[in-house]
Amino acid sequence: MAIQDYLDFDLNVELLDSNKLRVTVGDSPVGSVSAEVANPFTTDQIAQVISLLDGSVQVARAERNQTIRAFGELLFNTVFAGQIYAAYLASQERAGKAGLRIRLSLEDAGTLENLPWELLRDPRNDYLALSRQTPVIRYPRVLTVRPLVAVSLPLRVLVLIASPSDQQKLDVEAEWRALQESTADLRSRGLLELERVDNAQLVTLQRALREGTDYQVFHFIGHAAFDEHSQTGMLAFTNPQSNLTVPVSGEALARELSEENSIRLVVLNACQGARQNITDPFAGIASSIVARGIPAVVAMQFEITDEASRIFSQEFYRALSEGYPIEAAVAEARRSISSTLNNFEWATPVLNLRAASGILFPHRGGAGERVSTGGLREAIRTPRGIALSLLTLVVIGAMVWFGSRFIGRPSGNVTATPAACSDCDLAISNLRFFPDPPIPGKPVTVSIVLENQGTSDSGPFQWAWFANGLQNNPQPSLTGKVDNLRPNSSVIVKGNYLFGLWHTYSTTAWVNFDSQVPESSFFNNLRPKDVSPSLVPMQIDFTQLPNSDLLLVPIPFKGNEFDAWGLKIAPEKGTDATCTDSIIQLDIENNINRVRPSLKTDATKCTNLPIGFSVDQPVGGAEVQFLVGVPGTYTLDLFDASGNKILSGTTNAPSANQLTTLRVPPNSAAALENVRKIVFSGPASAAVEIQTITFLLPKSLEPKQ
Asked: How far is residue 189's CA from residue 361's CA, in Å, rounded to a whole number?
């Protein structure tokens, strides 16, 4: 992916007293030019177009499309008139593949500032905003812009959700699920993290931003309104006692977001968040935030449907995480809405951008750098040993007492780090999972809040988290180090983990688990929490291992890669003596991961062997998505723990090189709880290639209707 390096085409639109417009190209690849043109827009025409866009007036699709298209072309022909258009064409030629960014300055446009400028349409081409080559952004005049700094993936998004009872009912859970679902692929690949905050108060936001986590994005889900009387934009936050609306101005929100933190982007998923004040542009919500130095704000100028919002988030965050500039990411999201919904909701988002570059999150590290899955997971590569004597500890108090004296002591030539703490008390105040409950087989963010409740600095200390409790697995699943924690302060540490099939995991977080820091009390160093994965099918797409490692290159499997999930995958070798040395290979073609059997020494032989999946706990059935090697019959067999075939399903694939699905759900009493092995096979001459396998819930675990 070639990063866009846009050239700028700055357009300033000024409404004159004579009802004319002065359009000025302040900066462009070919210089500056200015022109005065008649203002063709009437109040009725503007109201008509906005009513079509916000859904308050319903007309036939053809009439709506024609009206909006005519408006977009009139807007373009008005602004890009005469020498302005000549400068535009010449600038496009000069920009070439780099792209030409249309930066609109509208502070002097009067009543025309609230026009849907995203509808600018070149009659000889298309809507400018739908192309990465000609993104349309609002470019307000501000004095302060927060500098851009390099970040390590994943991008961290703080999501604040507000649904006061006195506002129109908003299905916040549906919107949250939509945001989770739309970003599931990004989160599973370690490119993005979401953290939800339900207590929609400014003080909650204030505390979250100072807890130490470097959030790059603030995303608001809720209600917004524009007070016509005061000409002020308001967000509907919530009073925790009454659950009624607490109006929060853009200025108040901007005040918190502009404090010292890492946020470079604000996304306001609330209608009218992009509306402006006719006389004071900084009274609007989005413009107030930009005025405080936040480089970019995406806000909605009209109501947006749940489906359009989901599509926008999916493509926007995907492109952003892949390194595209924000203006290109917005263009990609607009085009996805247009092609999927075939309506004009793509024009609802407004991008206010004041940074010199749209690459808000330059990635830290070289081109070959392995994608980080959270920064903390890498610490597990060389974990400190934990003495097996943990197994003998019965109660937490005895366990911590014992660990404070005997566990994790350095040996040999290793010298313990001198403790800086003279009176500190490390504690765990919270242990959370995002999402909660986790999705089996998908990454979950483990978030731990550590506190120093003492009166002196802690100095360096270790923390750990155990996915299966301390008795079942003495090795930590996540671990990390904090250099220092000041008195009465806290820090959030995080890591990614992938839970397997459905059962309750007795997890435990432990701060100062190597007992290197002397404390006044050790009894608050541990925090247990049980967690059960969602009762949904578990799908494996072979793009990521249980330890969060991404599978980016073709490799042979050793056979133990999925042990943490209680799953083994191996070829069914049968009686063919030439295939006794066969293994499972990961193959990657066209950026799609598939597994197939082959000889260890020759990847072209024994590719027709069946593939077997054995699980440590019963499943209800299975589904495989596979690439048809040759036309013929493909079979999915289900076996119990004794090797007896319980169920079988077949499909006849008439064409080669087609992606096909074969599903065998439980359909007999014997299969409800006893499936422990799944075998997939094809015709004798077919190469067997599986793209995904899905384990279905046993009947006893299926959610009750």
From this structure: 17
CB atoms within 10 A of CB 282: 18
Structure tokens at 556: 């042979």
479: tokens are 């671990």
3-state SS track over 471-490: HHCCCCCEEEEECCCCCCEE
Cα 21 versus chain centre, distance: 42
User: Which residue shows structure tokens 């986790």?
Assistant: 438
* In contact, 265 and 155? CB cutoff 8 Å: no
Work out the percent of the chain whose per-residue pLDDT is above 90: 30
Q: Which residues contact 622 (CB under 8 A, 6 or more apart)?
A: 613, 636, 638, 663, 664, 675, 678, 693, 694, 695, 696
- The residue that leads in pLDDT, 30 or 108, is 108
| Range in 15-19, 265-269, 401-405 the model is least confident about | 401-405
* Distance (Å, whole) CA 485 – CA 426: 9
What crossing angle do the helices spanning 306-321 and 326-341 adopt, rounded to 10°?
A: 140
For residue 541, give both structure tokens: 């797409």
Distance between CA atoms of 265 and 289, rounded to whole angstroms?
A: 10
Q: What angle do CA 362, 443, 305 make, to 5 degrees?
A: 75
Phi, psi torsion values for 398, nearest 5 degrees: -65, -35
pLDDT value, residue 364: 53
Q: Which two tokens stand for residue 129?
A: 């905003």
Give the pLDDT confidence score for residue 370 in this predicted structure.
35
Q: How confident is the model at residue 50, as a pLDDT?
A: 87
Question: Within a 10 A sphere around the Cβ of 513, how many other Cβ atoms?
Answer: 26
Distance CA 595, CA 611 (A): 9
Q: Taking the model in full, what pTM does it have?
A: 0.53
Dig out the tokens for 656 from the structure: 């080669």
Q: Which of 195, 240, 244 is nearest to 216 (CA)?
A: 195
CB-count burial class (<10 Å; 0-12, 13-18, 19+) for 310: buried
Strand partners, 112: none
Rg (CA), the chain: 29
Query: Are 263 and 300 contacting, i.e. CB atoms less than 8 angstroms apart?
Result: no
The H or E element containing residue 192 is strand 192-197
What pLDDT does 521 receive? 66
In this predicted structure, the answer to whether residue 701 has a pLDDT above a threshold of 90 is: no
Q: Which residues make Cβ contacts (< 8 Å) with residue 125, sequence separation at least 6?
A: none
Do 302 and 273 contact (CB within 8 A), yes or no?
Answer: no
- The label of the residue with tokens 């809507």 reads 127
- From residue 376, give the alpha-carbon distance in Å to each of 190, 217, 383, 492, 534: 12, 20, 12, 11, 24
CB 651 within 8 A of CB 668: no
Rounded CA-CA distance 4/322 in Å is 12
Amino acid, single-letter form, for residue 654: P
Where would I find the beta strands (DSSP E) of 222-330? 224-227, 232-238, 245-249, 265-269, 296-300
Helix (H) or strand (E) holding 83: helix 83-95
Q: End-to-end alpha-carbon separation of the chain, Å?
A: 46
| CA dihedral over 189, 192, 198, 199, signed as positive or negative | positive
Which pLDDT band holds residue 420 (cuts at 50, 70, 90)?
low
pLDDT at 450 over 90: yes
* 8 A C-beta contact, residue 562 and residue 497: no
Q: For residue 77, what are the contacts with CB-CB under 8 A and spacing of at least 6?
A: 123
Contacts of 262 (CB under 8 A, 6+ apart): 149, 151, 214, 215, 216
The amino acid at residue 358 is: G
Tokens 């506002």 belong to which residue? 167
